Amino acid sequence: MSKKIRFALLISFIIIAVFSLSSCSKKEKETVDLQTTLSVQGKNDTISGKRTMVLTFPESVISPGSEADTNLAKVIQKYKPDSMNYSRTTVDGKIQYTLEIPFKSNLVYYENTAAAMGEHTPSSISHPDTVMTKGWRIKEDFQSIDLIQTWLQEGIKKEDFGGLDFEIKESKTYVSLDNKTEETSPVIQYNKLYGNPIEKIRIETIKTSADSDRTSTHLTRKFVFTITKSTYDKDPKNIKNYFQSKTESASSVSWPLNDELQAYELTVVYDDFNPEKLETCTKTLLASNYGDLQYVSNSEGSTVLAKQNLFNETLDFSNYITHNSAPVPIEYVYSIEENSELSSCQICENDIWIPADTLDEDRYGTKCAIRYSDTVLKLRINDGVQYQTNSINIESIPSDGDELEKNITFRFDLDKGGKEATEYVESFLKKRYDVVSYNEGDERVSKVTISGSTETLSDMLSDILSIKDPNQRSRKNSMTFSQESQSMTLRTMNHYTDKIDLSALLLGKNKDVVINYCVKTKSGDIIKSFSYESSSSDDEGSSDLSLDDEHAAWLNNIKGSVIVVSFDITTPNEKDIIFFSVISVIMVLIAVAMMFWLSKKPLPSLGLGSGYRSSGLPGGSKDLAVKKQKNNSIRKKN
After folding, report:
1. Distance between CA atoms of residues 499 and 477, nearest Å
2. Count of H helices and E strands in the chain?
3. Residue 623 and residue 616: Cα distance in Å, rounded?
């Protein structure tokens, strides 16, 4: 075998070894099966039951008795929510974990699922048995994976356990209602109601008064239920008795007939009630034990851009139906009598606060009116003093691993109360965060600097950008981080996803404020990709990521109250560099040794005829060299 062939084989061996090493770092996630049964019993206007979720781990994912099995048990025991029970069994060599969320009422179920997910998500279980409505309705905006994945992944990450890299997929979902079981979709939507339809429900709420120290608030509320005359005439006595039993605390109740609509407009008024009492009366009239009403004064309900009072309410209309068992159309009006301005009226859909679908009478001055057509209405309305900002700039500077520095900058017009605004920002945040204010041209700037892990920054951003409401426990902002080794390039790819919810700030005067987002890297790191999504339908954001500047990227003029920014950054992998440097040195030494060995080893005879001799015999290589010298001498003479 010639030197060239052997050298080529050696190089091939090195390349194959490197590819083999790099392929070891990538592994496909195994799949774990999830099956869910929501069992509910309804009796005497009460609801109770349990949500049972069964996780099945194949032996290829986790083997019974293995270290991974022990580690999984530790994570579940330590990190599962208190509202959740669990048990472990093995079936046909497969590990099964049964997780249960028991509940004794709709409200308890709502709180227990919120505890598992870390945030309140609209859900409703209804089993009315009245003259107006009978049957079952279940509406959820989540699936079982959401109840498990967050705390389970958090526990695995915190404990740094290996062998627990798997993906959960839900294969079957059932509802069992009074022991009758049916299969349904993973996000449960079940609707089998019948009874007497209601054409419309209108709710008018007026904030009538507040004490001088703003420690209490009084509200007046009027309900108008529109029921067609033909529906009412089918069973007038029972319908009237039913509503009479639900309105014992009302200030007045009347049944005027609207001749134009040929419908009765049941009008119920609650006069000058405090929020707690009005909440109880509202739930009674709506035949629901689910819902709440809060009015928080500006000392607790403020944001970083406003000294606002906060009106919060959740209403459940699922115990009433219109034609074809559909949800009843809702008109909701909120107004104030004192010298204050409503900054916004928003509703929550899919855990995102969006401007409400307004009625014609809505002026966003002293009155806010919305239209709604679903079972659970979650809304918030703000009034008070608001500071108008020119822009909000967010800067992310990754350092090591999932550690980052973030700068949040608010810019105010000096001629429009900018100095007062920055003083408020400083007083609002300075006790907890580093805030610097300064003049820049015609603007007054407040810059907040925070740093830490992605998990720490998620909590900090939620604190800075959300409403200061002690009852609002959900974490609206989140930042995730993952990384993977790139052995061929000796670098590590870091993946960042930054979800920022500004819906508490972009209200009233600030509803059209644009957001600018910037990523900067340290020396040696390179931005490889940069993208975003926005809640705005008329998104006008633009990304400036150029190849000649790999260490900074910008998103300018982002529209929308919720933005999700994703970016990938590669950083030198010191461990891989050291490892491959050692491997390379070893390979080079082997190659040099083999080349030295090959240069010393005699070449075999190629059998070119009787005139050829090997270098070890007389007339061999030395004779050929002499002949070559003679030929050269002849050329010179010529």
Report:
1. 6
2. 12, 32
3. 11
- Tell me the two tokens of residue 612: 């050829």
Q: Per residue, what are the HEC states of 182-247?
A: EECCCCCEEEEEEECCCCEEEEEEEEEEECCCCCCEEEEEEEEEEEEHHHHHHCHHHHHHHHHHHC
| Element at 509 (helix H, strand E) | none
3-state secondary structure 35-63: EEEEEEEEECCEEEEEEEEEEEECCCCCC
Burial class (CB in 10 A: 0-12, 13-18, 19+), 520: middle
**Angle between the N-to-C axes of helices 3-23 and 574-600, in degrees from 0 to 180, rounded to the nearest 10:** 160
Distance CA 256, CA 34 (A): 54
CA–CA gap between residue 585 and residue 595 (Å, rounded) = 15
Residue type, 454: T
Residue (of 356, 408, 361, 401) closest to 382 by Cα position: 356
DSSP 8-class letter at 297: -
d(CA 7, CA 13): 10
Amino acid symbol at 29:
K
pLDDT of residue 76: 95
- DSSP codes joined into one string, 269-281: EEEEE-HHHHHHH
Consecutive sets of 10 residues in the chain, 638 residues long: mean pLDDT of each? 55 51 51 95 84 94 92 94 93 94 88 84 84 92 91 89 87 95 94 94 85 67 97 95 96 96 97 92 89 76 81 91 92 79 76 68 66 89 85 92 93 93 90 91 95 91 78 66 69 89 85 89 84 69 49 84 89 64 72 73 52 40 38 40
State the Cα–Cα distance between residues 173 and 276, nearest whole angstrom: 37
* 500's tokens: 């920022």
What is the C-alpha to C-alpha distance for residues 509 and 7, in angstroms, rounded to an integer? 73
Whether residue 235 contacts residue 131, with contact meaning beta carbons closer than 8 Å, is answered with yes
Rg value, the chain, Cα: 36
CA angle 325, 329, 330 (to 5 degrees): 135
Report residue 310: phi and psi, to 5°: -120, 125
- Looking at residue 450, what is its pLDDT? 94
Q: Which of 423, 206, 200 is nearest to 305 (CA)?
A: 423
Contact status, residue 30 vs residue 167, Cβ threshold 8 Å? yes
CB 537 within 8 A of CB 414: no
Q: Print the SS3 string covering 371-426.
A: EECCCEEEEEEEEEEECCCCEEEEEEEECCCCEEEEEEEEEEEHHHCHHHHHHHHH
- Report the distance separating Cα 236 and Cα 181, nearest Å: 36
* Distance in angstroms (rounded) separating the CA atoms of residues 84 and 591: 62
pTM, rounded to two decimals? 0.64
**Identity of the residue numbered 581:** S
Token pair, residue 197, equals 């339809």
- For residue 337, give the nearest of 297, 383, 298, 406 by alpha carbon: 383
Cα separation, 541 vs 416, whole angstroms: 26
Query: Is 289 within 8 Å of 283 (Cβ atoms)?
Result: yes
- Give pLDDT, residue 637: 42
Nearest one of 564, 557, 556, 508 to 531, comparing CA atoms: 564
3-state secondary structure of 462: helix
Buried b (16+ CB within 10 A) or exposed e, 367-383: bbbbebebbbbbbbbbb
With tokens 């052995």, the residue in question is: 487
The residue type of 404 is L
